[in-house]
Specification:
The chain is of the alpha/beta class. Helix content is 31%, strand content 25%. It comes from Pseudomonas neustonica.
Length: 331
């Protein structure tokens, strides 16, 4: 039996993939802290999680022991699960958090991750952590003096691109409110708002690379990549990649950090088309929902691998590109 706790909305497709790959006698559990039947209905057994992160971890341990579940994948509140790892191990439960050691959770900080990649000579978009107006101005001036390109900023921790902005001196100050999806703002406007904020969060200032972004979901166990699918983002479309410089770099980084689970690695190409790491997320991406169309069932590979079963057959489909759409379902 295997259990997928609350994660990105793509949990729906992860449950589908696991269920499709496993024998019907193997129970797939799914859970969420909200009433999300459109997601959890794809599990054989659906559970409702406690809202409190610390209570959720202990509850998951107790439920897994009671139900005889062998594999538990967590995506949120990972530090609370890691505190209980020894108890999971003693109960014979394979706890999957994306890391093989609690100290590795530190790479959730994009500033720490950047420094670790630089120390290991792994190509990464350079960044400077800032936490006040003075350090923000200093970092911006440094990158502006080194390149004619734009400078960008994002929170040190966060997901889904929340808080990401490109500094554009030609941008109308009101543009960020009228067209927030453009992610453009003048540096002066941002700096003024940052100075007035009473809840300043550490930010990472970086040069803005203009090349393609590639997101690679990787099934990895004990620091060894097993299966992966890269998605190159081309405007409204995404193209699948099984190899190439960006995918190779993503695999290299995930193995360097000895990760464990299904992780998502983001890279960005520079002006010459050379990929550089942006970040690693210790969970599957929202876009993993599309990857089954490549012929690779990543959730199925993960489930079979963790349960010690033969991996599902994969048949790579070359030349596939997809376009995400919004649809409605009856839960």
């Amino acid at each position: 039996m295997i259990w997928f706790l609350e994660g990105p909305s793509s949990l729906r497709e992860v449950l589908q993939g696991a269920r499709a790959a496993l024998h019907p006698e193997i129970t797939v559990y799914g859970s969420h802290s909200q009433d999300r039947p459109e997601i959890t209905s794809f599990a054989d057994v659906a559970l409702v999680e406690p809202l409190d992160a610390e209570k959720r971890a202990l509850w998951a341990l107790e439920e897994a022991i009671m139900r005889g579940i062998k594999v538990v994948m967590a995506c949120k509140g990972l530090e609370h699960f890691e505190v209980l790892r020894e108890q999971f191990d003693q109960a014979g439960i394979d706890l999957v958090t994306g890391v093989s050691h609690p100290q590795q959770l530190a790479i959730d900080s994009k500033a720490y991750f950047t420094k670790q990649c630089q120390a290991a000579d792994i190509p990464v978009v350079p960044g400077i952590e800032v936490d006040c107006v003075q350090s923000l101005q200093g970092a911006y001036s440094k990158f502006r003096s080194e390149s004619d390109g734009h400078v960008c900023i994002k929170p040190v921790t966060g997901i889904f691109g929340a808080g990401f902005w490109v500094f554009d001196e030609e941008s109308d100050p009101f543009c960020c409110l009228a067209f927030p999806d453009s992610r453009r703002i003048s540096f002066d406007a941002y700096c003024d708002l940052y100075a007035k904020s009473t809840k300043v969060r550490p930010q990472l200032v970086m040069p803005y690379f203009t090349g393609d972004e590639v997101s690679t979901d990787i099934v990895i166990q004990d620091g060894k990549a097993i299966s992966w699918v890269g998605r190159r983002k081309k405007g409204l479309y995404q193209e699948f990649e099984a190899d190439g410089p960006a995918v190779d770099l993503a695999i290299r980084a995930s193995e360097h950090f000895k990760l464990d689970g299904i992780v998502s690695v983001q890279t960005k190409d520079d002006a010459e088309g050379q990929p550089h790491l942006l970040e690693i997320n210790l969970r599957y991406s929202g876009g993993i929902a599309y990857t089954a169309l490549s012929g690779i069932n990543l959730a199925g590979v993960f489930s079979c691998s963790r349960l010690g079963l033969p991996l599902p057959k994969s048949q790579w489909k070359p030349g596939v590109r997809v376009k995400p759409i919004t649809s409605a379902i009856v839960p």
